[in-house]
Fold this sequence. Notes:
Elements: E1 6-9, H1 15-23, E2 27-30, H2 36-42, E3 48-51, H3 59-64, E4 70-73, H4 83-88, E5 92-95, H5 101-116, H6 119-127, E6 145-149, H7 153-164, E7 168-172, H8 179-185, E8 188-189, H9 192-198, E9 201-204, H10 218-223, E10 229-232, H11 241-249, E11 255-258, H12 269-272, E12 277-279, H13 288-311
Parallel strand pairs: 1-2, 1-3, 3-4, 4-5, 6-7, 6-9, 7-8, 9-10, 10-11, 11-12
Helix pairs in contact: 1-13, 5-7
Amino acid sequence: MQIEGSVIVCDSIDGKGIRILKNAGLTVEYLPEITNQELISKVKEFDVIVVRSRTKITKEVIEKAERAKIIARVGVGLDNIDTNEAQKNNIEVINAGEASVNAVSELVLGFMLSLSRNIPIANNATKNGKWIKKDLLGVELKGKYLGIIGLGKIGRNVARLARGLRMNLIGYDVIPIDKSFVQEVSLITADLKTLVESSDFITCHVPFTEQTKHLIDKEMLSRMKNDAFLINTSRGEVIDEEALVDCLRNRRIGGAALDVYEVEPPTNKELLELDNLVCTPHIAAQTKEGQELASAVIGEKIIQRLLERQRE
């Protein structure tokens, strides 16, 4: 069944989703470098708006989106979309959260190995002619306690992967954690303070909301073990960056790894110059497989929702 309608794709996405939309009869305009001002002047022409994380779907954009029925996020987080304004205007917001689960989870494991075995420091030293083997005593992941903050799809997948490395798991979530999953991975459930105090590694997997802003603040950082490691692949605002800089500079914890920042790209030079911090440029979902799947999932979801609307 062919569907009438027009779609604007505002960010770079894998071509699979675009082909799915076109094959269904939709007109697709691919503008991966469009600015927000350009979008405001053009958005009234489209039934569906597709974005990743670069494009901000603000109140101003939504007010001009006279025909829009769907805003589709090729990824997980919706903090670049004014969801309240979309709801007021009867625009449905969908995402492809399931598509990046494995990619993000694997990066978390990569961060744990990088931190525990000093891989970035070892790499830089060796390439610069410094043989500092004796200075690079690492730790093993086996038997360590991994604290997982947020047990959604990604948090649960991280738990399963870490269990394969014979780590012990502590979990915290504001939503009750499924008992069958707790049994599956031998998860110890705890409040946030207990998790922070007990874990050798802490990884954050929560969305950015008013409740999660600076969830890991100065007080929480002070509760961490002095040799523990902190990992964040969720949203930068979940951690108080200034408090983390102070904590790392004074060697109060073992180290940290960040894929997300309060400002992106990060501008905090003090943060970026720390030798006990591993940094990546928001690449957690950036795998060939993950991007292809996210694009395809969104394409199929858009078609499904438009067909459902036609039947209503």
